[in-house]
Design goal:
The complex is a heterotetramer.
Chain A lengths: L1 E8 L3 H8 L2 H7 L3 E8 L2 E10 L2 E15 L3 E10 L2 E15 L2 E13 L1 H5 L1 H28 L1
Antiparallel strand pairs in A: 1-7, 2-3, 3-4, 4-5, 5-6, 6-7
Helix pairs in contact in A: 1-4, 2-4
Chain B lengths: L6 E3 L4 H11 L3 E4 L5 H6 L7 E4 L9 E3 L5 E4 L4 H5 L2 H6 L1 H8 L4 H6 L2 H7 L5 H8 L3 E6 L2 E6 H4 E3 L2 E2 L6 E7 L6 E9 L6 E11 L5 E9 L6 E2 L1 H7 L6 H14 L11 H25 L1
Parallel strand pairs in B: 1-3, 2-3
Antiparallel strand pairs in B: 4-5, 5-10, 6-7, 6-10, 8-9, 11-12, 12-13, 13-14
Helix pairs in contact in B: 10-11, 11-12
Chain D lengths: L14 H5 L15 E7 L5 E7 L1 H5 L3 E6 H4 L20 E2 L11 E2 L5 E7 L2 H8 L3 E6 L25 E9 L2 H7 L2 E9 L11 E7 L4 E6 L4 H12 L6 E4 L16 H13 L3 E4 L2 H7 L6 E9 L5 E13 L7 H9 L8 E10 L13 H18 L4 H8 L8 E6 L5 E4 L4 H12 L1 H14 L4 E12 L5 E7 L5 E4 L9 H13 L6 E4 L17 H27 L7 E4 L2 E4 L2 E7 H7 L15 E7 L5 E14 L4 E12 L6 H21 L30 E5 L22 H12 L9 E2 L3 H10 L1
Parallel strand pairs in D: 1-13, 9-30, 11-12, 15-16, 21-22, 28-29
Antiparallel strand pairs in D: 1-6, 2-5, 2-7, 3-6, 4-8, 8-16, 9-14, 10-11, 10-13, 14-15, 17-18, 19-27, 20-21, 20-26, 23-24, 24-25, 27-28
Helix pairs in contact in D: 9-10, 10-11, 10-18, 14-15, 17-18
Classes of the chains: A alpha+beta, B alpha+beta, C alpha+beta, D alpha+beta.
C-alpha cells in the first residue's frame, strides 16, 4: 500500500530536521511506543502498542534512518513483528523550507502488512494508516512548538 | 479462531459498570452487543484483558419521547427494537431506514445503538445518521456527565472522544421539522455488506419551496462521518433543481470527502459514487420534502 | 484458568448448570459442553449464520456471544424444533422442497426462520429473502430454501 | 405393473437426520481423552526459517506437545504425488513438488504449517500458538503468474532452473494451415483469476489410535476415504486393515476436500500414534483460505481463425496456469481447460500449449468446474467477439458451429484428464441451445422488449451460453448390495458424499432393480470398513461411475432373487416380477414370497448346500468406464446494470441441462442452482485477493463475497434434455459441476450486451463494480 502526503511544521528547516533526528521526540510519532533505544548511529529498537478501536497489537520493532542528505531528505524505515502479524514500512521524507517559521515535508512510501491483521483487517488499512501518520506528525509539531517555547 | 482469555464482569447498573471502567482503564473494554468486538476477539486482533458486559444493565435499554418531538435512546437498545418501535417508524423514518441497512437480521437482534456509535466505524449507518440528524450524546463517567454533539464525538477511524473510563449512555435525536425530506443512499457489494459509499441527507423547505436548510453526511468517505458543509452552504436559499443538485454533488464529492481505497473500491470509484449518490439523495430528499 | 463462572441456562426447555471460562463461545458451549452438535460453526466471525440459535426466541449468532452472556436466558437450538419422529412443519417443508443438500448450514436457517415465521406468518418472497440473507448456503443457491419457507408458511397458517 | 423409481422426484432419505441436528459431522466426534490441535502458520509467503522457538508454548499449562518438522525425525516426508502426468501425451514436462506436513527450511506460501500444538482444548492450543516465536529470513515473493517465468524472477523451488512446473502441448489437425485459409483471424488476451471453494464446513480430522487394538480410526472431511486410508497406512507403516477412514456427513466439498494429503491429514494421525490419544483438528475459516486449495488463475493468448460467414476453421490457445507452491494434483486442471476450449463446437484444427507455473501462493487443485469453466469462458468470449467483428448474431455463429447430433461419437483426438482420447460420446447441442433460447424468449426480447427498455434509458442485456462438461471418468467404483432377512436392502460403498443426495439417488437405482421402497434401502458411504475398493467423489462422476456400479451389483442380486424364487415358487424366472418387496408371479399376484423370507432361505442354517453355493442375496460389482461421458447444457440470462453505480440485477435465468438419464430431477435441479450461485461468484463477487507479497487480503467471509439470497436471481428456470450416454447401462452423465461452468462467460456476454453504448471488451473474470467502473472509464 502506498502512502503519500504533505505536512507543514511550524518551525525552521533545521528545527524540523532535528526533530526527525531525535529519537526521544520521534518516539512520539509512533503511536503507543513504549521505548526506543538506540542500537547504532541510525538504528533504534523498541516496542509499540497499536490501538485502533477494538484492535490492539504490540509489535517489537526497529526504526532505521538512512539516505540522509542534511536538511534535504532522509528515509525512515519501520519494521515490526507481533502476534497479529508484521508491518514493514519505508518512506522518503523531503524537507522544503517555506519560511523561517514554516517547513513543509513531503512523504512518499510503501507500507507492507502481513499475517492475521493483513488477511482480515484490510478494510481499515487506508484510513487507519493515514490517521496514524497525521496523529504522529501532529505530535511532532506539538513537540516542536514546546521546544520553541523552550 | 478462539478468543484469548479475559476477566469478565457483568454489572447490573451503570454505576457498577463505571466503577469497573475506572478501575481497569485502558485494559478494559465495554461489551455491548458484541457484534463487532467479538469477531475481532475471535480473530485475536482485539485482546482486551477485561470485559465489562453491559447487557444486564436494563436501565440502558429504552426508547422515550424526548422534548419537542425528539426521541431519547438508551445506549443498550437493540437495533431490532428500534427498527420496530412505532415512534421511530412514524416520526424517524431515516432512523428506521438506516436500521434496515445494518448487517443481517441476526446482527440486528443483538447489536445496540450505543455500541455501534461507540465503535465509531466510519462505514456505519447509525454513525452517519446520528451526525446528519444533529444527535446529542450523553457520556457518563465517575467524574460526572457531559453532553456532546454527534459531529464532535467521532475523532477518527474507530476512535471517538470517549475516555476509557467513560460510557455513552444516551442518544438524543431531534425530530425533523415540518416540510422536511430525507434520503439514505448506499452502494454495497452485496446487500448486507458495508457500503462502498453512502450518503444521508435531510432538507427543509420554506414557504416558497426553496431550501431553508440542508444536511449531507457521507459514510465510508473518510476516517469519520464526513459532513459536507459546502453542500449546506450552496443549497441554502436555493430553489431545488437538477443543475443545483449536480453542482452540489460535484463540489461535495470532490472537496468534502477523503475516502480511502481498499480491495472493494478504489478512491476514484468512491468519489464517483459519492457524486452519483449525493445527487440521488438530494433529489429524493427534496421530493419527500415537497410531499410533506 | 480458574476464573470460572457458574452458568445456569435453559436450552430447549432443559435447565443446565455448568461452570465455564468467560471466553468460552456460546457455540462451543452448546456443541461441546452440552453435546448439542446440531448447531454448526462455519466462520466464527458472524457472517455465515450456521451457528444461529434463538436467544430468548430471537435469532442470534452463537459464535458472537460468550456462554456467560446467556446466563439466565432461554435458548433454542435446532434440536429443540422437531424430532426424527415428528419434524417441525418447516423441517417437513425443507424435506419436501429439497431445501437442503449437505445440510451443514441448515440448522442456522431453521432457527432463523422458525422465529421469523412466528413474527411474520404470511411473508412475501422479498421478506423471506431478506430474512435468510444472513445465512450463507453454498449448495442450494437458496431457491429451494425460499420455496420451503413459502410452503411451510402456508401449511402453518392452514393448521 | 412394476413401480418406476428412476426419474422420480423422490424426497431424500438423509434429510430427517440433517434437519434435526442428528447427522454426524467430523467436529461432532467426542472421544474421552481427546486432545485438540492448532497450527502455527507462516505469516510470510516466501521465507527461510532461521529458528522456531516453541519452549514458551510447551510450558503453557494444558499443552501436551508441540511438534516442528525437526521433531518428526525419520517420519517427516512430503505428501504423495496424487495424479501423474498423462503418459499418452508426447513430450510432457512435469516437475513434481509436494507439500510437507511441516515446513523444514523454506516457506513457500503464506499459511504453510510450521508447528502443531496439542492441548487440552482448542482455546489453549491457540494461546500456545501465539507463544511460538519464529525467526524468518524473508525471501522475494513470486506472486505474478506472468513475471514468474521471466529470467530474473525469484524461484519458488530453487533446485529448479525456473518456476516452470509443467508444459503440455496438444494438437488437433493443423492450425497453422487452417489459419492461412481464414478470412479473419482474431487474437485476444484473457486473464482469469482465483476463487475459493468455501464449503460451509471447513476441513477437519479426528484421529484415534487404539494402542491395545492396534487400530487407527480416522474421521476425515475427505471426498476420497479409500485413497486416504491406503496412503495413511503406508505412511505410518501399518497394514491397510489396521486403518479405518470414515468420511461421515460432510458440509460441502466442491473439490478441495479431495484425496489431498494435506499437511494436517498427514500429521494428525501421526500425532495420535505418538501420543496414543485421540486428536481433533478443525480448520477455522481464516485457515481455510490459506490451507485449503483453490483455483482458476490462468492467462490465455488466444487466436481464432474463421471464414467471413462465421465458420470456425481453427483455434489456438497458449496459456499459463497458476499451480501455486506445489503441484500434487498433476495436470488435471490444465487438461480440463484444454479439453473444454473447443466446447460444443466442431473445430477441425486446434493447437494449445499449457505452461503450469509455480508461485508463492496456496496449492491449486480442482474446484467445482475444475478448469472447464476457464476453457468455456475463452471459447464463448471469442465467439462473442467474432460475432461482433463479423456482425453476425451471437446465436447464429454458435448454431452454425455446433457439432451436429449425428456426429457422435465425436473424436477431438487430444487427451483428457482421464488420459483417454477426448471423445464426446453423445449430445444434441442445437436442440439444447434452442430450448434455452425459447425458454428465455430470446427473439421476443431482442426484437421487442430490449429496444423498448433501452429507449426508456435502461441498460438491459441478454446472453445465451452453451457448454459441455466431460464427466464420469474412470477408473472405477464398486458396491455391495444385500437383501437382509427383514426385507430391507443394504448398499455399501467407499464413496464420499457431501450433499449430492447419494443416499437417495443410489437407493433409487437399487429400488428400480429390486422393487423395494426407496426408504427401505440403506446406503452406506465413505467408510473403508464397509467397503474398501474405489477412488473418490470428483469429476461429476457419482451418478455415472458409482451409480452404474450400484446398478450392476443390484442387477446381480436381482438375478439371484429370480433364480431362488423360481425354485421356491416353482415358476420360470421370466414369469416372476419384483414389486413392493416381494417376488410374485406376474399373473397370480397372491402367489408370492417376500424378499426377506427369500433372503432367509438363501442363508440356510442346517443341511447341505450345492457346490459353488454363495450365501445370501448379495452381490458385489464394479463399474469402470472406458472413457468419460459428455454432459452439456445452455444457460441464458437477462440482466440490468446501473452504469452509474455498477450494480447489477439478474432479471431472468434459465438453465437447460443434458445430463443423460435423470435419476432424480429434484436433486439435479438443486445441483444446478448451487452451481449457478458459485458461477455467479466467479463472475462478479468472488476473488481471492493476493497482494504482491503473497498475502491474501480477504481471508474472511466479510471480505470474500459468496452470494446471498439477495444476489441470486429470483428463479433459476431449469429445463432438461435427455440424450442417454451410450457408455453405461443407466445412460447417465454427470451434473455436479455443470451449473458453475458457463456462468462467467454468460455474465460477461449479458453485461457487454447491456452496456451496448460503451465501447469496451470484457477479457477477464471475475469482474467487480470497481473493475467495471475502471473498464467503462477507459472506454
Amino acid at each position: 500500500m502506498n502512502i503519500q502526503g504533505e505536512y507543514s511544521f511550524h518551525g525552521s528547516r533545521e528545527e524540523v530536521w532535528n526533530i526527525f533526528r531525535d529519537p526521544d521526540v520521534l518516539i512520539m510519532a509512533l503511536p503507543g511506543t513504549k521505548s526506543l533505544k538506540k542500537i547504532s548511529e541510525n538504528e533504534y529498537e523498541g516496542e509499540l502498542q497499536v490501538h485502533i478501536g477494538p484492535i490492539m497489537g504490540s509489535f517489537g520493532g526497529k526504526l532505521t534512518i538512512s539516505n540522509e542528505f542534511y536538511l534535504e531528505s532522509l528515509t525512515l524505515t519501520v519494521e515490526g513483528n507481533g502476534k497479529i502479524g508484521f508491518v514493514k514500512g519505508s518512506g522518503d521524507v523531503k524537507f522544503n523550507p517555506i519560511s523561517e517559521n514554516l517547513t513543509a515535508i513531503r512523504y512518499d512510501g510503501v507500507i507492507q502488512i502481513g499475517g492475521r491483521v493483513a488477511s482480515v483487517g484490510q478494510r481499515l488499512f487506508d484510513t487507519v494508516s493515514k490517521n496514524m501518520i497525521h496523529q504522529g506528525l501532529d505530535k511532532l509539531d506539538k513537540a516542536l512548538q514546546d521546544r520553541r517555547k523552550g | 479462531m478462539k478468543p484469548p482469555p479475559f476477566e469478565y464482569f457483568a454489572p447490573t447498573s451503570v454505576d457498577e459498570a463505571l466503577a469497573h471502567l475506572t478501575k481497569y482503564g485502558y485494559d478494559a473494554k465495554p461489551l455491548a452487543g458484541g457484534q463487532s468486538l467479538i469477531p475481532m476477539m475471535n480473530f485475536r486482533l482485539a485482546q482486551p484483558s477485561v470485559l465489562v458486559d453491559l447487557n444486564n444493565i436494563s436501565e440502558l435499554a429504552y426508547i422515550r419521547p424526548g422534548e419537542s418531538g425528539g426521541v431519547s435512546l438508551g445506549a443498550m437498545i437493540r437495533h431490532k427494537t428500534v427498527g420496530s418501535d412505532s415512534l421511530i417508524v412514524d416520526r424517524f423514518p431515516l432512523v428506521h431506514e438506516a436500521i434496515k441497512n445494518i448487517g443481517t437480521p441476526q446482527i440486528r437482534t443483538r447489536g445496540t445503538f450505543g455500541g455501534s456509535l461507540s465503535h465509531a466505524d466510519p462505514s456505519a449507518e447509525l454513525v452517519t445518521i446520528s451526525v446528519v440528524l444533529n444527535g446529542q450524546f450523553r457520556l457518563l463517567s465517575q467524574q460526572g456527565e457531559r453532553w456532546v454533539h454527534a459531529n464532535e464525538f467521532f475523532t477518527g477511524s474507530f476512535s471517538s472522544i470517549l475516555e476509557p473510563d467513560e460510557l455513552l449512555v444516551e442518544i438524543k435525536l431531534p425530530v425533523l421539522p415540518e416540510h422536511s425530506g430525507w434520503s439514505l443512499q448506499e452502494v454495497a457489494r452485496r446487500h448486507n455488506d458495508f457500503a462502498l459509499m453512502g450518503v444521508a441527507a435531510t432538507v427543509e423547505l420554506d414557504g416558497d419551496g426553496s431550501c431553508k436548510q440542508a444536511r449531507m453526511v457521507f459514510m465510508s468517505a473518510g476516517d469519520r462521518p464526513m459532513e459536507s458543509l459546502q453542500a449546506e452552504e450552496i443549497l441554502k436559499g436555493q430553489k431545488p433543481s437538477l443543475e443545483l443538485f449536480q453542482a452540489v454533488s460535484e463540489k461535495a464529492s470532490t472537496s468534502d470527502i477523503d475516502p480511502g481505497g481498499d480491495i472493494h473500491a478504489s478512491k476514484e470509484f468512491r468519489v464517483h459514487l459519492a457524486k452519483v449518490l449525493s445527487q440521488r439523495a438530494l433529489q429524493e430528499a427534496f421530493n419527500r420534502a415537497r410531499e410533506n | 484458568m480458574d476464573n470460572l463462572f457458574n452458568l445456569s441456562i435453559t436450552v430447549n426447555g432443559v435447565l443446565y448448570e455448568r461452570q465455564v471460562e468467560p471466553r468460552l463461545l456460546l457455540s462451543d458451549f452448546l456443541r461441546h459442553d452440552l453435546g448439542l452438535t446440531g448447531t454448526h460453526v462455519g466462520c466464527e466471525h458472524g457472517v455465515c449464520g450456521a451457528c444461529t440459535i434463538q436467544f430468548d426466541s430471537q435469532p442470534a449468532r452463537s459464535c458472537l456471544m460468550f456462554a456467560v452472556m446467556a446466563h439466565g436466558h432461554r435458548i433454542t437450538t435446532v434440536e429443540g424444533l422437531g424430532t426424527l419422529e415428528k419434524l417441525h412443519p418447516l423441517q417437513e417443508a425443507f424435506k419436501e422442497e429439497h431445501g437442503l443438500q449437505c445440510g451443514f448450514c441448515t440448522p442456522g436457517f431453521l432457527t432463523t426462520l422458525t422465529s421469523f415465521l412466528e413474527e411474520n406468518p404470511d411473508p412475501t418472497e422479498e421478506e423471506i429473502r431478506e430474512a435468510v440473507s444472513g445465512n450463507l448456503c453454498r449448495c442450494t443457491g437458496y431457491q429451494h430454501i425460499i420455496g420451503s419457507v413459502k410452503l411451510a408458511a402456508e401449511k402453518m397458517r392452514t393448521n | 405393473m412394476a413401480k418406476k423409481f428412476i426419474g422420480e422426484r423422490v424426497r431424500r432419505n438423509e434429510d430427517a437426520r440433517l434437519l434435526t441436528g442428528q447427522a454426524l459431522f467430523v467436529d461432532d466426534i467426542e472421544i474421552p481423552g481427546m486432545l485438540h490441535a492448532a497450527f502455527k502458520r507462516s505469516d510470510y509467503a516466501h521465507a527461510r526459517i532461521l529458528s522456531i522457538n516453541v519452549s514458551a508454548a510447551r510450558d503453557l499449562p494444558g499443552v501436551h506437545a508441540v511438534y516442528t518438522a525437526a521433531d518428526m525425525g525419520e517420519d517427516w516426508a512430503p505428501g504423495p504425488p496424487l495424479v501423474s502426468p498423462p503418459p499418452s501425451v508426447k513430450d510432457v514436462t512435469f516437475y513434481s513438488r509436494r507439500q510437507a506436513p511441516l515446513v523444514k527450511d523454506v516457506i513457500r506460501h503464506a499459511g504453510e504449517t510450521l508447528a502443531v500444538v496439542i492441548a487440552e482444548s482448542r482455546y489453549i492450543a491457540e494461546d500456545a500458538v501465539d507463544e511460538i516465536l519464529v525467526e524468518y529470513d524473508p525471501l522475494p515473493v513470486v506472486s505474478d503468474l506472468e513475471k514468474a517465468l521471466s529470467a530474473d524472477s525469484p524461484l519458488v523451488h530453487d533446485d529448479l532452473e525456473s518456476n516452470l512446473a509443467a508444459h503440455l502441448n496438444q494438437q488437433k489437425g493443423d492450425y497453422e494451415s487452417a489459419k492461412k485459409q481464414a478470412d479473419v483471424v482474431i487474437q485476444r488476451r484473457f486473464h482469469l483469476d482465483r476463487g475459493a471453494a468455501v464449503a460451509m464446513e471447513n476441513r477437519g480430522i479426528v484421529a484415534h489410535w487404539d494402542e491395545k487394538a492396534k487400530q487407527l480410526t480416522i474421521w476425515d472431511t475427505t471426498q476420497a476415504p479409500i485413497p486416504i486410508r491406503n496412503g495413511t497406512a503406508s505412511r505410518l507403516g501399518l497394514s491397510e486393515n489396521q486403518v479405518r477412514v470414515i468420511a461421515p456427513f460432510i458440509g460441502g466439498a466442491f473439490g478441495p476436500k479431495m484425496m489431498m494429503f494435506y499437511p494436517e491429514e498427514m500429521l494428525i494421525p501421526w500425532v495420535s500414534v505418538q501420543l496414543c490419544r485421540p486428536i481433533k483438528w478443525i480448520e477455522d475459516r481464516r485457515e481455510n483460505f490459506y490451507a485449503t486449495t483453490s483455483e482458476r488463475e490462468q492467462v490465455h493468448e488466444v487466436e481464432i481463425a474463421l471464414t467471413k460467414d462465421g465458420h470456425i476453421l481453427g483455434l489456438k490457445d497458449d496459456f499459463l496456469h497458476d499451480t501455486g507452491a506445489f503441484d500434487p494434483y498433476g495436470l488435471t486442471l490444465p487438461l480440463n481447460t484444454q479439453c473444454h476450449l473447443m466446447g460444443p463446437y466442431n473445430i477441425p484444427n486446434f493447437s494449445s500449449q499449457c505452461t503450469a507455473v509455480f508461485t508463492n501462493k496456496p496449492i491449486v487443485t480442482p474446484v467445482r468446474g475444475a478448469g472447464r469453466q476457464q476453457g468455456i469462458y475463452i471459447i464463448e468470449r471469442m465467439l462473442d467477439i467474432s460475432a461482433a467483428e463479423l456482425s453476425i448474431d451471437p446465436t447464429v455463429i454458435r448454431k452454425m458451429n455446433f457439432i451436429p447430433p449425428d456426429a457422435f461419437p465425436f473424436n477431438n483426438t487430444i487427451v483428457d484428464q482421464a488420459f483417454t482420447p477426448l471423445i464426446l460420446d453423445s449430445g444434441n447441442f442445437v436442440a439444447v441451445f434452442e430450448k434455452a433460447a425459447e425458454m428465455i424468449g430470446y427473439e421476443k426480447f431482442v426484437k421487442e422488449e430490449q429496444p423498448r427498455l433501452r429507449a426508456s434509458g435502461k441498460h438491459v442485456g441478454i446472453a445465451l451460453t452453451p457448454f459441455i462438461e466431460t464427466t464420469g471418468v474412470g477408473p472405477y467404483e464398486g458396491a455391495r448390495v444385500q437383501i437382509e432377512t427383514n426385507g430391507k436392502v443394504n448398499v455399501v460403498t467407499g464413496y464420499g458424499t457431501q450433499g449430492q443426495g447419494h443416499f437417495t439417488m443410489l437407493a433409487q437405482i437399487v429400488s428400480e432393480q429390486l422393487g423395494v421402497a426407496v426408504q427401505n434401502v440403506r446406503v452406506v458411504t465413505g467408510d473403508t470398513a464397509e467397503f474398501h475398493w474405489g477412488t473418490g467423489t470428483f469429476a461429476s462422476r457419482g451418478a455415472v461411475v458409482m451409480g452404474n456400479a450400484v446398478h450392476a451389483a443390484a442387477s446381480g442380486v436381482r438375478k439371484k432373487v429370480l433364480k431362488l424364487a423360481s425354485k421356491v415358487l416353482s415358476t420360470p424366472e421370466e414369469e416372476l416380477e419384483l414389486v413392493d418387496g416381494v417376488v410374485r408371479i406376474a399373473d397370480v399376484p397372491d402367489r408370492s414370497i417376500s424378499l426377506g423370507e427369500l433372503s432367509g432361505l438363501a442363508n440356510p442354517l442346517r443341511g447341505a448346500v450345492d457346490p459353488g453355493f454363495e450365501p445370501g442375496l448379495e452381490s458385489t460389482d464394479y463399474f469402470g468406464p472406458q472413457s468419460g461421458t459428455t454432459a452439456s447444457g445452455c444457460h441464458g440470462m437477462i440482466l440490468e446494470v446501473d452504469p452509474e453505480t455498477m450494480m447489477v440485477e439478474i432479471k431472468r435465468y434459465v438453465a437447460v441441462e443434458d445430463c443423460g438419464r435423470v435419476i432424480n430431477p429434484l436433486i439435479v435441479e438443486g445441483q444446478i442452482h448451487g452451481g449457478v450461485s458459485m458461477g455467479l461468484g466467479n463472475a462478479y463477487y468472488e476473488k481471492l485477493q493476493f497482494d504482491e507479497d503473497g498475502q491474501i487480503l480477504n481471508a474472511s467471509l466479510a471480505d470474500y463475497l459468496i452470494v446471498t439470497s439477495r444476489e441470486m436471481p429470483k428463479k433459476v428456470e431449469t429445463g432438461h434434455w435427455e440424450t442417454l450416454s451410450p457408455l453405461n447401462q443407466l445412460g447417465s452423465k454427470g451434473v455436479g459441476e455443470a451449473g458453475a461452468i458457463p456462468v462467467p462467460a454468460l455474465f460477461a456476454q449479458a453485461l457487454q450486451n447491456a452496456l451496448f453504448d460503451h465501447k469496451f471488451e470484457i477479457l477477464e473474470t471475475p469482474l467487480s463494480p470497481n473493475r467495471l467502473f475502471e473498464l467503462l472509464q477507459a472506454s
